[in-house]
Amino acid sequence: MYRVLNDDLIKDYIDETPQIRSLLLDDNGSINNLDVSEIGDGNLNFVYIIKSNKKSLILKQAVPFLRCVGEEYPLSRVRMTFEIEALKIEKEICPSFVPEIYFDSIDMSLVVMQNLDSHKILRGEMINRKIFPLLSEHISTFLADTLFFTTDFYLGSAKKKENVEKFINIELCKITEDFIFTHPYEENETNDYNPKLNMSVVKQFREDSSIKRAVAKMRYKFMTDAQALLHGDLHTGSIMLNKKETFVIDPEFAFYGPIGFDVGIYLANLVMSYFSLEKDEEVYKDYVRNMIKDTWDMFALKFKTNMIENEKKRKSLQWNYPNGMKHFEQYTDEFIKDIFSDSVGFMACEMFRRTVGLAKVADVADIKDLDRRALIETKILSCASKLITSKYSNIDEVIKEIEK
Ligand code: SR1
Ligand code: MG
Prior knowledge:
The chain is α+β, with helices and mostly antiparallel strands. Helix content is 53%, strand content 12%. A hairpin with a 4-residue loop joins β6 and β7. The mean pLDDT is 96. 5-S-methyl-5-thio-alpha-D-ribofuranose is lined by residues 43, 66, 68, 175-176, 179, 233, 358-359.
């Protein structure tokens, strides 16, 4: 039966759960030096490290409310079921980018998985100006593969529809609909502002017809365009890494949505990190700019390869004529072009919401000098306004816009 765990109750839970207990046992058949501590700093769940002499594990449990708000914001625990199911699918598609899952319990809304103790959260690492030469290669593969191998192209119509049904993630989609696509564009009590941010800048984008219409389009696309199984919250806090390995964690927002959403959220977080840098940090600025470019370019190439290879295997009648594969390639290029413009639109929405909405990014929000922070936030808002209302043909043009 479900109960909310804490450090002590977890010890009892381990005792009564052989699948977890057996992982922690010494060769002599007992658990030695068991230690449990809560380390979660996310907005939704509780995360514990469990350590014994033998092994260390992560236990993540969903509670029936939104952690960052408190018990007054009820949220059903079913989100853990989505996380577990998404982790399993992602693990199958991208085994080296998803942590090992040792045990899960839908009843207790928890998952026990590999402790990535030689890896750190990407956001913190970027704040500390760390460089990861393999990150863009890894993330572009994660994006291209999870977002291709869950589409109709690969799964076929019936299996894909089964998946869509399995991932009807009503509550967490509602959080995104509200906190990314609605509240930041109205005077909502959940919004949170740097006191030094000039509110006339905020009022301006809130009352700009082209911005409002463009955001409304992205919102509707998010709600209706069931293209692929998304991670659903792929910001730089959902990635753990070291110089050699990259892991994507926390897919509780997983659902079938537009491919550009995952790509755009990730790129937006790189862009906000870029804006947070000091004027003279040219080397790191260059690194982040390259990350933005490489991630998109590599994603587009890998997604295209997945499309073409898949069609070559399928040999569908539809494209089976002398110029068929050439025409399929043209169709693929157009498909990726649409993903690109969606990604830029979602990127802008993420930049707006992380600046005036409830959940911030530490890269900017932790800047102590509030005047400097406000300057950065103003730049982010003005860049987001440009991104969402303009048309770009490639990532270089987007980067130019950011540099302005
Ligand atoms: C209100 S919950 C705030 C945010 O935390 C999660 O990480 C998602 O990004 C969500 O929008
Ligand atoms: Mg999360």
